[in-house]
Amino acid sequence: MKSHAANFITISNMSFGGAAIMATLHEYYSYSVLFIFIAALLDRYDGKVARALGQVSELGKQLDSMSDIISFGVAPALLMYEVVLVDFGFAGMMMAVLFIVCGAMRLARFNISEANGYFTGLPITAAGTFLTLTYFAANAFHPAFYLFLFPILALLMISTFTLKKSVTAHLLLHFFHFPQLLNIYCRKMGKG
User: Fold this and answer.
1) CA-CA distance, 183 to 170, in Å (whole number)?
2) Between residues 177 and 40, which one has the greater pLDDT?
3) pTM of the model
4) What is the pLDDT of residues 70-113, one digit of tens each?
5) Per-residue pLDDT, 192
6) Helices 145-158, 124-133: inter-axial angle, 10-degree rounding
7) Which of 84, 73, 75, 69 is nearest to 25 (CA)?
8) Which of 77, 149, 169, 174 sits most deeply, having the most CB atoms within 10 A of its CB?
9) Distance of alpha carbon 86 from the chain centroid
10) Alpha-carbon dihedral 138, 125, 100, 30, rounded to 10 degrees
11) Nearest residue to 123 (alpha-carbon basis) of 64, 51, 63
């Protein structure tokens, strides 16, 4: 079991991403949000566990990217499409597809890049988690706001700016700290 611990965490991430998609399809949007947040927590630890146990592998890297496109590409895009973009018809659909495609391109670029201590472009985990967080403010924004947010996040993912991984990790942990996400979720779900 120890030899597969990291891959088990990654597969759990993927499973929660898949569950988020199914929850969205059945209009259980708050569950979808929760499942994406749990996937983000799991994504935070799969690489750490692999390195700590000496299990870093090409299989794990590829599996992680497949999990990420489901949990932080497809699941958040479908969720927010259903919540706010569905009324925009083809334009709304194209924004969701653009987000997913750019997320996949960002992951593919990551998989063929040499590790150098920097991220190139916004990590899909950050983009997808941020997009999911906006679920709680969807009523505060005009739905047309998302016609701009989706392509901005998509372009940030495929951009060529670099971020030092240690700085990025610190910022992501600060803004997407799981207890904070869970607290936000519980407060918002308790109101309505």
Assistant:
1) 20
2) 40
3) 0.87
4) 999 999 999 999 999 999 999 999 999 999 999 999 999 988 88
5) 46
6) 170
7) 75
8) 77
9) 20
10) -40
11) 64
Cβ atoms of 13 and 43 within 8 Å: the answer is yes
* φ, ψ (nearest 5 deg) of residue 96: -65, -45
Contact (Cβ atoms closer than 8 angstroms) between residue 122 and residue 157? yes
What are the beta bridge partners of residue 163?
119
* Token digits of residue 90: 């083809």
- pLDDT tens for 144-159 read 999 999 999 999 999 9
- Between residues 188 and 112, which one has the greater pLDDT? 112
Question: Can you read off the two tokens belonging to residue 39?
Answer: 């996937």
Judged by phi (left if over 0) then psi (alpha if -120 to 50, else beta), residue 57 lies in beta
CA distances from 152 to 26, 103, 127, 148, 160 (A): 28, 12, 10, 6, 14
Query: Nearest to residue 5, comparing CAs of 56, 41, 40?
Result: 56
Write down the mean pLDDT value for the chain: 88
Distance CA 192, CA 74 (A): 26
Q: Which residues contact 37 (CB under 8 A, 6 or more apart)?
A: 129, 132, 178, 181, 182, 185
HSE toward the beta carbon, residue 124, CA cutoff 13 A: 32
